[in-house]
Amino acid sequence: MHIELKEGKRYYSIGEVAKAFDVNASLIRFWDSEFDILKPKKNAKGNRMFTPEDITNLQLIYHLVKERGFTLEGAKTHLKEGQKKTLDKFEIIRKLETIKTQLTEIKNEL
């Protein structure tokens, strides 16, 4: 799972976020209520508008809960105890996945 952030885009609607993660908007709302690191803004109608930083944090939550099988409490604890370290590792994994995809594309062109 890799989400492409659009250059210059400051906010993403909950619908865009849910579609990008291939989950229901209700799960995104639930995670927003459970994880303090998510801080979406709300527009005049009260709709959540997620920043690129929120998207990165959602990717990290998704990785911990959906890919690594953490419980919500386990993910919260993991984030609180080593958020910077976890985020750094997560970013390295995502960059390596991008490089792997690019190398596979190059290989297929040969």
From TrEMBL:
InterPro entries from the UniProt entry: DNA-bd_dom_put_sf, MerR-type_HTH_dom, MerR_fam
Coiled coil: none
UniProt domain HTH merR-type: residue ranges: 11-81
Xref: SMART domains: HTH_MERR
The entry's keywords: DNA-binding
Annotated GO MF terms: DNA binding; DNA-binding transcription factor activity
Pfam entry (one): MerR_1
Name used for this protein in its record: MerR family transcriptional regulator
